[in-house]
């Protein structure tokens, strides 16, 4: 009955070790995360953000043809056929918004740029350069303003340059750019704004214009504030100082590690205590034992019964003799013995477990 209760406690102890192992792993992962997360550079606060967005729409003015019997202005999709198209009207919206009021000064002059691979680039101004000085949170530099790409002009210019240079490029790009150049002032800080990245681009051949890229584009300008040190972590919505989090996690790792190590030692000790003396001898010294199947009377030898197996080992080592093992089925007893010229040294051990010597799980194993 006592053995059954101790076995139940042993089972509970294994569950406790499993739980402690999981908690230890979680603590280790948390510790590594906290130390790595706080090793980076201090954070920079965004004192003000300025967003710049540009959107384009375009159509095609086509001649009467088999493909377009009525001609006129159409929505061409991504491909515009050169031979039946005379103009490409486009509309641009360009908006700048800021979280805080700013002063924005600069110039703009929409430009059409033709690029012939790496050979040459030609800019065609569509309007004169205009200047502006604006204050506030929101600016509309282009508010549904329309411009036109003259297909015949583009074709004629490319043909003329090819005749002059004697070089014909394999690929041409036609780019429309609002060409906004300016400075944004906020709280004594200045940032440059270059809108050349907000372009509408077509890849061009002698047969078609094909849209390249997106018709909606955006960029951002950030006015950086003070440097903020990473001195806190937010866990489950609760801010915790980094130093406290590190201390708690390190202590947790040490605590769970000690608990795990202690319980593993106690479990091992308990498992050892559950072995009979014969099992312990077999487990530790089995390779040195020579089994004997039949008992032999040695009446001419003086018999010496030793009080422990360790004593038998000492004699075997000093005399360099083998240790024999015989199991007496009648007495359910195990006899270990050594024979020399004059003496028979023996030690008897039982298969039974001495429950009085087993560990008490209640006191030696911790399971909560």
Number of strands: 21
Structural class, from secondary structure content?
Answer: alpha+beta
Described by the principal axes of the CA atoms, the overall outline is: elongated
Strand percent estimate: 35-45%
Please tally the helical runs, counting DSSP H or I stretches of 4 or more residues. Answer: 6
Protein name: DUF5305 domain-containing protein
Organism: Sutcliffiella tianshenii
Keywords: Membrane, Transmembrane, Transmembrane helix
Pfam family, one: DUF5305
Outline the structure in words.
Keywords: Membrane, Transmembrane, Transmembrane helix. It comes from Sutcliffiella tianshenii. InterPro entries: DUF5305. This is DUF5305 domain-containing protein. The protein is an alpha+beta fold and 368 residues long. It has three domains: 2-40 and 231-272; 46-228, no CATH class; 277-352, Signal recognition particle alu RNA binding heterodimer, srp9/1. The chain is built from six helices and 21 strands. The strands form four sheets. Strands 1, 2, 3, 5, 8, 10, 11 and 14 form an eight-stranded antiparallel sheet that branches. Strands 4-13-12-9-6-7 form a six-stranded antiparallel sheet, with no helix packed on it. It has a five-stranded mixed sheet with strand order 17-19-20-21-18. It is elongated. Mean pLDDT is 80; it is low at 1-6 and 355-368.
